[in-house]
Specification:
Layout (H helix, E strand, L loop, with lengths): L1 H16 L10 E3 L2 E3 L18 E3 L10 H5 L6 E3 L21 E3 L24 E3 L16
Parallel strand pairs: 2-3, 3-4, 4-5, 5-6
Antiparallel strand pairs: 1-2
Protein name: LRRNT domain-containing protein
Membrane topology: Single-pass membrane protein
Subcellular location: Cell membrane
């Protein structure tokens, strides 16, 4: 009987280790990537696997990026949020996304990015690429961070 219990625990553990986790509704997931392009999302999707490295939210209706949920994605290096409804309320949004090296915010409702947007790391302070349309932002123009 104990052997059956051990086998069950082992099989469940192997399923978790193999990355067999849930994927946000309407999105497609493959190894370390979540793609939610063009799903008419109104808000940041729930249940994003915590080991996600590439998150694509392009061509949706997302108006807000929650800093807390983003900070749970500790390995996130690529974030594509182009063609959404994001506004100027991005202060401290990327404060916990310290491995982020690529961020696309083009074709949103942004008119400014402040010092607070990338404080303590993230794409602005780490030398990564940031795109906001036809003219990419230079990381050195966004000062601050742990870079």
């Amino acid at each position: 009987m104990l052997a059956w219990g051990f086998a069950l625990v082992f099989l469940l553990g192997m399923g978790m280790a193999s990355g067999d986790v849930s994927c946000p509704s309407g999105c497609s997931c493959r190894y370390l990537e979540v793609n939610c392009t063009g799903q008419q999302l109104q808000e940041f999707p729930a249940a994003i696997p915590l080991d996600t490295r590439q998150l694509i939210l392009a061509a949706n209706n997302v108006s807000y990026l929650p800093a807390m949920e983003l900070s749970f994605l500790a390995d996130l290096v690529y974030l594509d949020c182009r063609k959404n409804l994001l506004g100027d309320d991005l202060d401290f949004t990327f404060i916990g996304v310290v491995k982020l090296v690529y961020l696309d915010l083009s074709f949103n409702n942004l008119t400014q990015v402040t010092f607070s947007t990338f404080s303590h790391g993230g794409a602005g302070g780490r030398g990564g690429g940031i795109s906001s349309g036809s003219t990419p932002w230079r990381p050195l123009a966004v000062r601050g961070g742990a870079g």
